[in-house]
Design goal:
Helix content is 34%, strand content 29%. The two termini are 24 Å apart. The chain has helices spanning 112-127, 155-162, 173-187, 215-229, 244-253, 267-278, 375-380, 384-407, 411-431, 436-457, 461-477; strands spanning 5-6, 12-13, 17-18, 25-26, 55-61, 65-67, 74-83, 96-104, 133-139, 143-151, 196-204, 232-238, 255-261, 281-291, 297-302, 308-310, 313-322, 326-335, 342-353, 359-372. By secondary structure, it is of the alpha/beta class. Helix 3 runs parallel beside helix 4 and helix 10 (436-457) runs antiparallel to helix 11. It has 11 helices and 20 strands.
């Protein structure tokens, strides 16, 4: 893969209108095709569901051919889902909410952090309806219930309970999280109908240092509640000391969102964003089932999302979708050495359309991947939308790996990861017209290459952590792990 130099940045204005000049990414060794000869992707305005459906759905390989002469035999299969553009009318009843706020009250949260956390909870409670359920848990080395699950009718009484939250000692993050999950689970049956939200919002500024502390055990708990009970969890990390990898994984495995706050004053804004998303619910109980030709390919991995496998079927449960929320899914297979083989892949989507009165919807996509040694066919077989998603995911992964290597002070390895990420984007832009979101990641990779130099000379550990947390959060917001307009 050749590395191209970037000599101009902005190709598009919003709406994906092409601009000049023609040769955006240029290498003396490999001049890209003129823009008119490159493949185009589906613009955002056309990514809307069919009539009567609330999810836009595509599924297929990144290339309809694979190179039978390559050593790795990799086949990537890409699925993209997007919620309908939807603004609830004033006369439409909001989704019922069942929320547990889990607040870190360890000693480091004293002062402004805890005060703003309480203001954020108060703000969120004011956004809840009279028939919603709320519970509040505070934790340090002990788990304490501030408010057991209750209907949000007497808000004044609930606000008084919020003010009882006070700072304490160590951080039993998992214990607090599990108590909140249990409270939400126990209130599920009290809220009728499919149009309901069951969520824990976990806020912490520290590390899990008492109780269950192993990240894999903590994330397994969030995953199980999500998969088995449709209870989701969003995490809010505050300051420089918390474990951002753990907080990110808890939210992803738990079907929620991850937020980083460098300034406690931003807490109410984060909580407002979380609640506005929840009020625009368009689909629930979203399940994907991918059937692959087990006699022709080996299943390798699903990027990011939890899944189960049974023979030649992969099942991915995604639960809730909100208006214009996007979830891209990349699956990696390896072809068996069968010359001239044609491989059939099928994807079945089922979900509850809550906009159309809780209708059960089913949709299916199928595609074929053919083995060939013809390089021209391989180039022609690139599927622009799927290849764009693949490029977004892998370049984001390389940026994440670079950040992890910097945490270990392996700066040279980090630079190599950055280069690999940039190379993947350059390769994509050789065949497909550029788009602003991949350009953003390209710029993030370039900026992080400069930040690596800064990190190498940074002696203060707090400054080092803040640089890394800011960079990781920016990368998270621009990656496939977050809501993203592709």
């Amino acid at each position: 893969m050749k590395s191209f130099l970037v000599f101009t940045c902005s190709l598009f204005i919003y709406g994906f209108t092409l601009a000049q000049p023609d040769d955006i990414y240029y290498s003396p060794e490999r001049k890209p095709k003129p823009l008119k000869d490159r493949k185009s992707y589906t613009p955002l305005k056309d990514r809307q569901p069919e009539a009567g459906k609330s999810l836009y759905f595509t599924a297929g390989p990144t290339n309809t051919f694979y190179d039978s002469e390559s050593n790795d035999k990799e086949i990537y299969y890409y699925i993209f889902l997007q919620g309908q553009k939807y603004t609830p009318a004033d006369n439409i009843e909001n989704p019922s909410m069942n929320i547990s706020f889990v607040i870190d009250r360890s000693g480091s949260m004293s002062g402004d952090k805890l005060n703003y956390a309480k203001k954020a909870v108060d703000f969120a409670i004011d956004m809840m309806g009279d028939n919603d359920y709320v519970s509040i848990v505070q934790y340090d080395d002990k788990i304490e219930t501030v408010l057991e699950p209750t209907v949000v009718k007497d808000k004044e009484k609930i606000h008084k309970k919020v003010q009882e939250i006070s700072s304490g000692g160590s951080t039993d993050l998992c214990g607090g999280m599990q108590k909140g999950l249990d409270y939400v689970k126990s209130s599920r049956d009290k809220i009728s109908g499919n149009k309901s939200i069951h969520r824990v919002i976990l806020l912490s500024d520290g590390l899990a240092n008492t109780g269950i502390i192993k990240p894999e055990e903590i994330t397994a708990i969030s995953r199980n509640y999500y998969q088995e009970n449709s209870v989701t969890i969003s995490t809010v990390g505050v300051g420089s000391d918390y474990n951002e990898e753990l907080m990110t994984k808890i939210s992803i495995e738990g079907g929620g969102n991850y937020h980083f706050i460098d300034n406690p004053e931003k807490m109410p804004e984060i909580f407002e964003r979380e609640f506005l998303d929840m009020k625009s619910l368009v689909a629930k109980n979203v399940i994907l089932e991918i059937t692959f030709p087990q006699d022709m390919v080996y299943f390798d991995k699903v990027f990011q999302y939890p899944y189960t496998q049974n023979g030649n079927k992969i099942r991915i449960k995604l639960t809730d979708f909100y208006a214009e929320q996007q979830k891209p899914i990349l699956i990696k297979f390896r072809a068996k050495n069968i010359p001239g083989s044609e491989m059939d892949f099928r994807t079945k989507l089922t979900y509850m359309n809550v906009i159309e009165g809780d209708q059960l919807m089913t949709d299916e996509k199928s595609s074929v991947v053919t083995a060939t040694a013809n390089k021209k066919l391989i180039a022609e077989g690139i599927q622009a939308d799927a290849h764009m998603g693949y490029t977004l995911m892998l370049s984001s992964e390389y940026l994440s790996k670079a950040q992890d290597e910097c945490d270990k002070r392996n700066f040279e390895t980090a630079r190599q990861m950055v280069k690999k990420g940039m190379d993947i984007i350059d390769e994509h832009f050789y065949y497909v017209i550029p788009n602003p979101y991949l350009e953003d990641i390209y710029e993030n990779l370039k900026k992080y290459k400069d930040e690596i130099k800064e990190l190498e000379t940074t002696k203060d550990p707090v400054t080092f952590r803040l640089i890394q947390k800011g960079s990781k959060h920016k990368a998270y917001k621009g990656s496939y792990k977050a809501v993203r307009f592709l």
